[in-house]
Specification:
By secondary structure, the protein is mainly β. The chain is built from no helices and 13 strands.
Length: about 190
């Protein structure tokens, strides 16, 4: 007979409903399960065999931000956001390049100036043989530096997740998530 099935896996609890009635509920300790980028598999079967036809399937997924041991999907421990700064989170927690992944690199020049740019992508490069460094700084200026101009040739990336308030331009005008609360901001 035609029956509506619902399955959910939320916060360490699995629940299956048939026709609006719970038929299975199971609690478990999720541990680091959610931070593993696995493609979940769901298998349905009929006890004793038989024929099954499904239609109208829909998959809904919560967006959640977590701490993980590598700091890839989250941060390594609690994070204090400085006053007058923002921490930007994307709408796809496993593939947004948002504040959780932002890094900068800093080079000190022999004359005492400091050059700061975004770490990663095409924003900087270092030629180990010639010693040339090419870096696009945070103001958009492209520097071409020789090895003798740079004090710390082996600079390392730093976690740089915050957006200062003065860097935000414009004004928010709409709340669009969750969809039930879409409205213009007065």
């Amino acid at each position: 007979r035609k029956t509506r099935l619902a399955f959910e896996n939320v916060d360490g609890r699995i629940r299956v409903e048939a026709g609006g009635r719970p038929i299975l509920e199971y609690g478990f300790d999720p541990g680091n399960f959610y931070s593993l980028l696995l493609r979940p598999n769901l298998r349905l079967g009929l006890a004793g065999g038989g024929c099954l036809s499904m239609s109208g399937l829909a998959l809904y997924r919560d967006i959640h931000y977590l701490e993980d041991s590598d700091g890839i999907l989250g941060t390594l421990g609690p994070l204090r956001i400085p006053e007058d700064c923002y921490f930007a989170l994307g709408d796809n927690c496993t593939s947004s390049k948002d504040s959780r992944l932002w890094k900068k690199i800093r080079f000190e020049l022999q004359d005492g100036r400091e050059i700061v740019g975004e770490y990663g992508g095409d924003h900087w490069s270092r030629n180990e043989l010639s010693g040339e460094i090419h870096i696009l700084d945070t103001t958009g200026y492209l520097w071409h530096l020789s090895r003798r101009e740079v004090k710390n040739f082996d600079a390392r990336e730093e976690f740089a997740p915050f957006v200062p308030r003065e860097n935000l331009i414009g004004q928010a005008f709409m709340v669009f998530w969750p969809l039930k609360r879409v409205h213009l901001i007065d």
